[in-house]
Amino acid sequence: MHCWDFHNCGEKKKNCPAFPVSGKNCALLAGTIGSGQPLFTFAQKSERCLRCAFFHSEHYAEEFEGALEHEPF
Q: InterPro entries annotated for this entry (predicted)?
């Protein structure tokens, strides 16, 4: 099960950076919608993720199976 199914996001999921690849490890991505507005800093996001039922469920996967794309420093 992906986070957007767990949280019943519906069409909102299309605006989330976790969709469609990172629905099982959304805590690793900045800007996910979760249960409200997107949070872009790790401090903000980690606090919310630690309170998230999906994060603590058997559906959350700690491994990242996708490829991260980023700009070089």
A: Two-CW_dom
Contact predicate 66/22, CB 8 Å:
yes
* pTM for this model (two decimals): 0.74
What confidence tens digit (pLDDT) does each residue in 25-34 have? 888 888 887 6
Long-range CB pairs of 49-55, under 8 A, 24+ apart, other chains included: 52/27, 53/6, 54/3, 54/6, 54/7, 54/26, 55/27
Tokens of residue 16, six digits: 């989330």
CB 60 within 8 A of CB 27: yes
What whole-number distance in Å separates Cα of residue 67 and Cα of residue 13?
Answer: 20
Q: Which residue is listed with tokens 């491994």?
A: 63
45 — phi, psi (to 5°)? Answer: -70, -45
